[in-house]
Amino acid sequence: MLAAGAFNSPQLLMCSGIGPTVHLQAHGIDVLHDAPEVGQNLIDHVDFTINKRVSSIEPTGFSVRGIARMVPQFVTFMRHGRGMLSSNVAEAGGFLKSKPTLARPDLQLHFCAALVDDHNRHMHWGHGYSLHVCVLRFSRGTVTLASADAREAPVIDPRFFSDARDLDLLEEGVQMARRILDAPSLALCGGRELYTRPGQTDEQLRQTIAGHADTIYHPVATCRMGGDARSVVDPQLRVRGVAGLRIVDASVMPTLIGGNTNSPTVMIGERAADLIAASRREPQAVELPGAAAPTASAV
Ligand SMILES: Cc1cc2nc3c(=O)[nH]c(=O)nc-3n(C[C@H](O)[C@H](O)[C@H](O)COP(=O)(O)OP(=O)(O)OC[C@H]3O[C@@H](n4cnc5c(N)ncnc54)[C@H](O)[C@@H]3O)c2cc1C
Fold first, then answer.
1. Is 120 close to ligand 1, i.e. is its CB under 6 Å away?
2. If you take atom 28 of ligand 1, which residue's CA is the nearest one?
3. CA atoms within 13 A on the CB side of 209
4. CA 269 to ligand 1 centroid distance, Å
5. Could you give the domains of the chain?
6. 45 alpha carbon – ligand 1 mean position (Å)
7. pLDDT digits over 244-256, tens only?
8. Does the pLDDT of residue 140 top 50, yes or no?
9. Residue of the CA atom closest to atom 51 of ligand 1
10. pLDDT band at residue 183 using 50, 70 and 90 as cut-offs
11. Ligand 1: does its nearest atom lie under 6 Å from the Cβ of 250?
12. For residue 216, which phi and psi values (nearest 5 degrees)?
């Protein structure tokens, strides 16, 4: 069983000779099975964060007064399990429809009671809060090999905004998020935006979004499951073209769900456990619609 996640499962398959023939040959890897979609179809949620810096020390952050406040907060947390140290920081979330006529949301919000800039690689002195907006669909990217050596990182290209609808939608989402931040209850918190400015033209806003947008950590679909011959795994998660190998992680999702990916991945694990247990009791006992015949009994 392979469960190395949406980046490393396709990498390990390719390093083992299962993947697109031309790409494997370019790295001098003997082809065991030509699987053109290994590493293809990468989908992720592209996200832009409106950060607001405030003078209050109420949100999580770094300042002399803020650090001094941590001492009693630490004691409160240790004694009662309460207070600001009991916060998961990402305290609220929501889903939006960019148009009321849509059947389902196409934007997601994560609210953090702290400044979050470039995945916190860029730390700020001071306090603030942030509202993440992410687009739930569209652009597709790739995971390819940098080297035949599995110890080297693969090349991850999410190709964010390769589908023009994503940037249009994200811009719309940022405008909607701003309206939420301007609503009376949150407007009370005030603050100054870090990268965006209320008076920006649409074009300036788009450039800021495109320059700062990044993943909200939901990569999937690089070893797509499907009933068709091109899919990497069949509906019982068996890798097509080889015997005895299943993939059990987020890479098998056929497409990206409109929300966070951890729970569905846990469910994939639970389902895989049932499939494996059933195949051990009686091979082929659990057959799903559209499942292709396996090359051999996979466990
Ligand atoms: C910073 C961050 C925050 C997130 N927050 C949320 C959230 O709040 N809610 C939510 O629903 N989802 C969240 N996610 C997404 C969620 O964590 C993933 O969707 C989920 O973990 C995917 O599970 P997986 O099994 O596919 O991959 P992973 O959890 O990445 O597991 C893959 C495992 O394989 C191991 N591995 C990889 N290569 C090798 C190798 N060559 N040899 C041995 N082991 C290897 C890795 O070390 C890892 O342990 C977040 C992700 C990140 C990165």
1. no
2. 5
3. 26
4. 13
5. 5-42+220-281 (3.50.50.60), 46-215 (3.30.560.10)
6. 15
7. 999 999 999 999 9
8. yes
9. 217
10. very high
11. yes
12. -110, 25
Q: Is residue 4 within 6 Å of ligand 1 at its C-beta? A: yes
pLDDT, one tens digit per residue, over 99-108 is 999 999 999 9
The answer to whether the CB of 262 is under 6 A from ligand 1 is yes
**Is residue 61 within 8 Å of 74, Cβ to Cβ?**
no
Q: Are strands 192-193 and 61-62 parallel, antiparallel or unpaired?
A: unpaired
Q: Determine the distance separating the centroid of ligand 1 and the alpha carbon of 251, expressed in angstroms.
A: 10
Q: How confident is the model at residue 288 (pLDDT cuts 50, 70, 90)?
A: low
Please give the pLDDT value at position 289: 52
Report how far apart, in Å, the C-alpha atoms of 212 and of each of 118, 137, 207 are. 8, 18, 9
Catalytically active residues, by annotation:
218
Q: Looking at residue 227, what is its pLDDT? A: 96
Rounded to the nearest angstrom, the distance between the alpha carbon of 264 and the centre of ligand 1 is 12
What's the mean per-residue pLDDT of the chain? 92
Q: pTM for this structure?
A: 0.90
**112 Cβ inside 6 Å of ligand 1:** no
Ligand 1 atom at minimal distance to the Cα of residue 249? 26
